Known about the structure:
Blueprint: H1 5-13, H2 24-41, E1 45-48, E2 51-54, H3 63-75, E3 82-83, H4 84-106, E4 112-116, E5 120-124, H5 130-144, H6 152-163, H7 167-170, H8 176-187, H9 194-219
Helix pairs in contact: 1-2, 1-4, 2-3, 2-4, 2-6, 2-9, 3-4, 4-9, 6-8, 6-9
Amino acid sequence: MGITLAEEIMLLSLDDESGSAKQRQAAGWAAAGGILLELVLAERVSVKGKYLELTDATPTGEQLLDSRILLIGSWLRGRSKRRVTDWLTKDHTKAVGATLESLRERGVVTARESKVLGVFPVRLYPEADGAVERQLRERLRAVVLEGAEPDERTAGLIALIHSAKLHRLAFPDQPRRQVTARTAEISAGQWAAEGVRAAIRDMQAAMAAVTLVTVAAAAG
């Protein structure tokens, strides 16, 4: 598999030198959505409309995904399905830490401890292997800016970037309108089986819903 969709999202978010995450909250929603999409592609969960269902608890062999299979199974205990929005709300902050640790274990980033304002401890993840991110950005550039046909995983990643509005992280030097138009086109395209595309659409709706609630709560 290489690195997972969630890890790709967080690589785009991380500042290479400082190791801090940009747009951390939005990246968290996208990382949680990326893990779910991986589980959909692996036929471990289904996302239909507003609901999430665990269809197969067999491990995938990928620790980040298998930990979520166990967590989802525990969360669903006694129920066949629950709302996608509830899972994303529960998991989006935890998904960030789990994904960053997975990148560290792969040797893509390192970890160091620091303090905010000299008091509050925080863990930072500076880049250790820049080749992984370079290849990722080249792949995205080829599809979004140069018109190459995306494979299923790249199209799914672009759909997550689009739904979480992470265009600036993925394409910091490109006109926002041009990038947004192309990512919207890819997200709506015939890039995967209908069941997978339906799952992405449902996750996009769920992410939009929880983001709206979060922003409203912050404003209040």
